[in-house]
Specification:
The structure is a single chain. The protein has about 500 residues and is α+β, with helices and mostly antiparallel strands. Among the domains are: about 210 residues, no CATH class; about 40 residues, no CATH class; about 90 residues, no CATH class. The protein is built from 15 helices and 14 strands. The relative contact order is 0.11.
């Protein structure tokens, strides 16, 4: 089925599939870049830029997927899940059986391997849909991209149904069941579910603000990163043109001073690698040979300007963008975001992804509770689970950054400018104030328990072999030391 055709059969009466064709097409272009299947887009850009019909195929030969600016930016920027995410129910909140059951369900779902593409695709494409499903009484997560689906919704977050392509077939998900249709739109299977609503969680990392921008399609953010797509195509075009020019630059240019009318038909004058043969009947035709010198730095500067302009909107400085300049790897791009910038990017994405996490796992709980899953009777209802669910995103700062941050915290605490709870919320934006306070108290308790355990075993932890010391012991030791130093100062003979 072509992209601009409508949904077939009875689906056509419920879904206006054709209306979203352009939006899905834009999403598909982004997806092609992400999956390294974008060479046809590069070829089209070259063909649209080169007017000479004979030169066009010569440059197209150099069309490459090597400089994928879209993929490079996504890899550098979409980092919230780069070190995994901890999802848990604590035994003190729900009991040990429920806590263990939830941990098992998280593992069974495969979210550990899906988190990486969910983070990156939701950043690039807009709202990504994740649907929990039971297959042979095992939890599976179906990930649906904006390039293949339509949704029915009430407001920003309440999805009532979804429709997407699966090969030539169609899948429709409602508040009651999964429905499967063939390419003609004929229903061949349906499977009820017990989620009590349409089980599609929304994961997004874009700049969407919660309202429809420029009409109903605005919810999808179809033009988000459109400039990045254009820049990536321009970069690939420059790369191909530069490689073509470099190849020709390794040869000599023959210049024949003759009238164009005397050039036999079929000869290509736009390819400098091909000499011209003139059928001049007698006479002398002046011929000159020039050594061509092509400076690749000229093309690299053009390519760098394209990239730097594109990544600036994402806060990536030019110093973190490099191009190779050697014969085997000419003009290839790399982006390396480091230090504090990674933490800032993470903090921008976490609130969006956290919203998806807090929607998904209550759905999973309600889905399982009405099924024959082995943990069906153990998990709390979705509404209760949402209140006690803990989702922790690891800090991405380097050790040096953490050290500097702690030093700044200590200085701020001394001046009364910050609080430990506020500091934790700043570094862990997924935490509420109550959660941050609870996390701090738990850390203190864990530290105290560790001290007690080591002290009870008299394990040496310093060079003097004194073992772990209590606060009173340390204070007494330090007080004695200081007292002795004072006495020696008063009586040098002591």
């Amino acid at each position: 089925m072509a992209i601009h055709e409508d949904a077939p059969g009875e689906l056509a009466g419920r879904w206006d599939w054709k209306a979203g064709a352009d939006r899905r097409g834009l999403a598909m272009e982004k997806l092609q870049f992400f999956t390294e299947q974008h060479r046809p887009l590069v070829v089209h850009r070259i063909e649209s830029r080169i007017e000479d019909a004979k030169a066009r195929p010569l440059i197209v030969k150099f069309a490459s997927r090597a400089n994928n600016l879209v993929r490079s930016v996504v890899e550098a920027v979409a980092v919230a899940y780069s070190r995994g995410v901890r999802r848990e129910l604590r035994a003190e909140d729900v009991g040990e059986p429920a806590a263990k059951a939830f941990a098992d369900i998280v593992t069974e779902s495969g979210i550990g391997r899906l988190g990486w593409p969910i983070n990156k695709l939701s950043w690039l494409l807009g709202p990504l849909l994740v649907g929990p499903q039971l297959i042979d009484n095992k939890l599976s997560l179906d990930v649906v991209t904006p390039a293949t689906c339509e949704v029915s919704r009430i407001g920003a977050e309440n999805l009532t149904a979804g429709l997407w392509r699966h090969g030539t077939d169609w899948i429709e998900l409602t508040a009651d069941e999964w429905r499967y249709y063939d390419e003609k739109g004929e229903l061949y299977k349906s499977e009820p579910h017990s989620a009590g609503r349409c089980p599609l969680a929304i994961f997004r990392c874009d700049a969407y603000l919660g309202f429809d921008v420029a009409g109903p399609s605005g919810w999808w953010a179809p033009t988000e990163h459109a400039g990045l797509i254009d820049a990536s195509l321009d970069l690939a075009y420059k790369h191909a043109f530069g490689l073509w020019t470099r190849q020709n630059g390794s040869s000599y240019l023959t210049v024949i001073n003759a009238e164009l009318k005397n050039i036999p038909a079929g000869q290509t004058i736009s390819d400098p690698a091909q000499p011209l043969v003139l059928m001049e009947p007698g006479g002398t035709v002046p011929v000159q040979v020039f050594d061509r010198i092509v400076n690749p730095e000229f093309y690299l500067r053009e390519m760098a300007a394209i990239v730097e302009g594109a990544v600036a909107r994402y806060g990536i400085p030019p110093s973190e963008v490099t191009f190779s300049n050697n014969n085997s790897n000419w003009g290839n791009l790399s982006i390396n975001v480091r230090g504090e910038r990674l933490g800032l990017l993470r903090d921008q994405q976490v609130p969006w992804l956290l919203q998806g996490e807090r929607t998904l796992w209550p759905m999973v709980a309600d889905l399982l509770r009405g099924s024959r899953h082995r943990h069906a009777k153990v998990l709390p209802p979705g509404d209760e689970l949402r209140d006690v669910l803990r989702v922790a995103f690891p800090d991405l700062a380097s050790p040096d950054d953490v050290k500097k941050s702690i030093e700044a915290l200590q200085a701020g605490l001394g001046l009364g400018l910050v609080s430990v709870t506020g500091y934790m919320m700043e570094r862990r934006p997924e935490l509420t104030e109550a959660e941050a306070q609870a996390e701090r108290l738990k850390n203190i308790d864990d530290y105290a328990a560790g001290i007690e355990m080591v002290a009870s075993r008299n394990i040496p932890t310093d060079d003097a072999g004194r073992g772990v010391q209590s606060v009173a012991q340390i204070q007494g030791r330090e007080g004695g030391r200081l007292s002795g130093e004072a006495r020696r100062e008063e009586d040098p003979a002591a």
